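Crash report, auto-generated. Payload:
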Amino acid sequence: MLRILCFVVATVASSMTFADVSAVYGFDDRSEEQRYQNLIAELRCPKCQNQNIADSNSPISKDMRNAVYQMMLEGASDQEIVDSLVGRFGEFVKYKPDLDSRTFMLWATPAIAVLGGLIVVVGIVVRSRRTGTAAPTLSAEEQARIDKMLAEKNRNGSA
Amino acid sequence: MYPELGQLALILALLLAVLLSVVPLVGSLTGRDNLQAFARPLTTGMFVFVGLAFAVLTHAFLTDDFSVAYVANNSNSMLPWYYKFSAVWGGHEGSLLLWILMLTGWTMAVAIFSRRLPSVMISQVLSVLGMISVGFMLFIVITSNPFDRLLPNVPADGADLNPLLQDFGLIVHPPMLYMGYVGFAVAFAFAIAALINGRLDAAWARWSRPWTTVAWAFLSIGIALGSWWAYYELGWGGWWFWDPVENASLLPWLSGTALMHSLAVTEKRGVFKSWTVLLAIVTFSLSLLGTFLVRSGVLTSVHAFASDPERGTFLLALLAITILASLMLYAFRAPVVHVRSRYGSLSREIFLLLNNVLLVSATLLVAVGTLYPLVLDFFELGKISIGEPFFNLTFSPLAVATGLLLGVGTFSRWKKTDGGWLARKLLWPLAVSVLISTAVMVAYGGFKPWAFLGVFTAVWVTTATFWDLWDKSSSKKGRVHGLKRQSRSYYGMVLGHLGLAITMAGATVVSNYGIERDVRMVPGDVATVGDYQFRFVDIGERRGQNFTAQYGSFDVMLDGKLVADLHPEKRQYAVGMSVMTEADIDAGLFRDIFVAVGERISDNAWAIRLQYKPLIRWLWLGALFMAAGGFLAISDRRYRIRERDVERSAAASPEQAGTQRTAGAIS
Amino acid sequence: MKRFLLFLPLLAAIIVGVVLFAGIGKDPTKLDSALIGKPVPAFSLRDLKQPETTLDEAVFRGEITLLNVWGTWCPSCRDEHDDLMWLAREKKVSIIGLNYKDNRDDALVWLDRLGDPYSKVIYDPKGTLGFDLGVYGAPETFVIDASGVVRYRHVGVVNGDVWERVLLPVINDARENG
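Recovered output after restart:
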């Protein structure tokens, strides 16, 4: 793959624009620049302590940013760019793992939790309907204590 | 000489903690008042000796006693005094000592403020807190002694505090965070005590509530401070990375939020007891899990302490004993009998239960997202990363759902709410919210589905909260009288919910409408970010107390007018030769302007990061609202129960263990 | 009867505990290579020692080879150099070097002074092959089998212990199943 040092790119690009400064990497338009920012924010630096390649200054992150930029110039899609880096550095560099048999539980857990919780709540409501009229929840002693406390509260509250 | 005294104090505190965890508990189980009476003096002694140890370590830092290994590793004579002070908790050993200081401080607070509780209950609560103290004191004394000496080869100077930690945020962030983490130990101890003596009742919920709320308030502040610190100090303008260590603090916060709400139901209606007590155990367990994740090195994080397998193993053993024992107790003692209570499908109980479903799902999501890489590694299925894009995608729907539910639930009543009435009630708030969120979309120039949902939710929560306040405060004696009549805990709830709305609005707007550019600039260049122009004026050098810095001067202009003059720096610290990026920020209620200097690209050209961050302050402002709400709620007068009521209710306790388990709440 | 449900949290905690226990002491920053089971990526780079010669992926065909990524800027590479010398001399291991993001003069002085354990050294000043191999920090050592397929990657210093415990079993396996 052709590789140009980033400052060469930047210098060439900046000499062509004069209204505004260029990005560190030159882009034709802002949407491409935004696409680049999004891509480098989703890729993990393999060398660092949990940083994306946008925020990391390590040499490998610079190389990876450069590779992303070069592939964008060659017209690669987001998927192709990510796949190419995963092919070299492994799944590890992707902050959003694909849905596959290994990661199924990862993606499914929140859905299972919400659905399971809803089923339990519906069960509680249905059962409370079936039991009919409101029966005392508490033992006699408990009820007495609660009443006393509530009475106390009301006295305080209105004072 | 002093450091040895500190160590001695720690060991004495440990001995007192051992006594505290045994004597009052035995007293409470055998009904011997004279043993129970030891609870408070032992607590005081333990707290005083830990305080003494902490004071000794602080003294060692302030006097540059580099014969103490921990001081030598985490301080330097060139540090300003306030960083020497905060360096006390800048490393593993000292921060653990701070953790223990907080724990004994909370124990002390329980001993002081619970004078009106039945003696059996208070003895058991203090004993349980004593047991936790024993575990952590053993941990510090055996594996992480902060008073170890470097004798006879005392270094001439210290290795310096990590420059990232030389910052105001790091003076205040850990103490607040630990106050929250450790504070949940109190709710945990109440839960364990209630399980031991079989008195899981409304009174238990009422006693736990203020402690849970205040711990939660501290944790909210602690998390917000951490996020704020990461934003301005890590140098790249992010405020939440979904890093394992950040997640570790979010986990007890989420389940603690669920606990606060379910405690409300248990207190008011005496139901969902088993669930509430489980949440109390889980919340503190998650605090412990966080402590383990940060200190064991099982996960990679930017914030973790240096890892040490021996400490990791010890800590895990400690966790295992605490958590497994409490869950075992739970499994055998929690009530399973179903309540024959009746609640309508739209009752406040059910809304709060749904709130719990969503919050617990969010807790599970964050837990699974944080631990999943470990699980895959365990089965040797490869290494994966789970970060921001995953959590943004999965967490946002839960947050939105929670907010929408909150708005509806605000109007609900205990036991039963009429569906038609509720629907009519919601109509106007709904219309107002749609209108306002549309206006916000227009103002920020562009409709984005997730931005709309987030803003709508925030506005919806705000509208519903104020609408409810308006309804409740209507009074024949006038509005002011009506507003005064509301309890402090109600206003606490109002503040808390408004805080949530503010944080949500901030998070949504800054992530959807923030602008971030990495540009190459030479002095004289002008760059545009949104409506703002940034002029790179020049680059200069300056010397700080323990670093040299290159700084850029930037004029920020809006419509040709100068709005800010910013000086971001690249600092080179003399000791350790580390380089730090110090961003400069023009902060505002509605937007931040952020400039950071990156690497030098060529002779006079620099990579510059420019950012426009709308509403980013709202993230932390919301957290302050939430915390203020928490503090306001616990000042409510109903938590000050009169002594004789409690004494009278305590008199009913002998049969309690038996009756409780049959008449208990739903599972 | 419903009580067994109350044991679920306990069960969950035990499972999490086991996973956490297994995680202690493992280094979460050590990554397996993404190229395991795949051939060495195509390249065409100069030989460090003979600047006129061009090397390509064919140099890995024929025998099991260690590919050692190094540079004179890398302090750990200095640490493992004597062990590499020992491997080449005593164990008759074929080692190909990848001089990564370095300059030729420095690299030649280094080999001249410290000895040369490499049968060939690929000169990769811009780090292109290193990038294609997924190198994220030197030193790294790849085990490549006789048909030029990557079998293993070790991140960090190679020494006698790593050789015995990690590399040799992989090489033996490659020999038997090659």
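Post-recovery validation: The radius of gyration of chain C is 21 Å.
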